[in-house]
Amino acid sequence: MPVLAAGERQLDQVIAFGAGRRGTLYLTDRRLIFEWGEGLVAKKFQQLSVALSDIQAVNAVHSTLRGREIVVTARDTSNGFHTNRITLAIAMTPEVWMGKINNLLNSRIPQTPQPSVVIQREVVKTPCRYCGTLLDAFRVNKCPNCGAPLS
Q: Rounded distance, CA 131 to CA 143, Å?
């Protein structure tokens, strides 16, 4: 099991094959981690991780030769894979993992309020030449007070 940051929670795990290695794919509330062990006697664990904030897309690939795979596209290559596209064969239906990852991604997107549109306009009112009531000359064609036509 990978070392998690303070407050980070593991949500799920599955056996996975990626980069020529068999390991475990972990999903936490902050990142996606692929961990594998090297060595027969003294196991040394290696891991590659992608922060959820760096994930751009998650897709499933159903290959007849390699089985079910999940493809994660990240923003940068600083995740240890040296590529922004990570393909892992997993021992579970890829759509299930896609749903879990996408739900986390959607819940992390800050909901920005829609900007309100404020329309400002200047209304010029002119006095009626008979009674002096102020009128919006663009909206009315006769004085509502005395009934005189505007001209």
A: 9
Domain ranges (residues) in the chain: 10-108, 123-151
Count CB-CB contacts under 10 A for residue 26: 21
Backbone angles phi, psi at 131, to 5 degrees: -115, -15
Q: Is 32 exposed, middle or buried (0-12, 13-18, 19+ CB in 10 A)?
A: buried
Segment 51-88, tens digit of pLDDT: 888 888 888 876 555 567 888 888 765 655 556 777 88
For the entire predicted model, the pTM comes to 0.62
Tell me which architecture the domain covering 10-108 has in CATH.
Roll (2.30)
- 136 Cβ contact list (under 8 Å, min separation 6): 123, 124, 125
Pairing of strands 67-74, 85-90: antiparallel
CA distances from 97 to 26, 89, 94 (A): 10, 12, 5
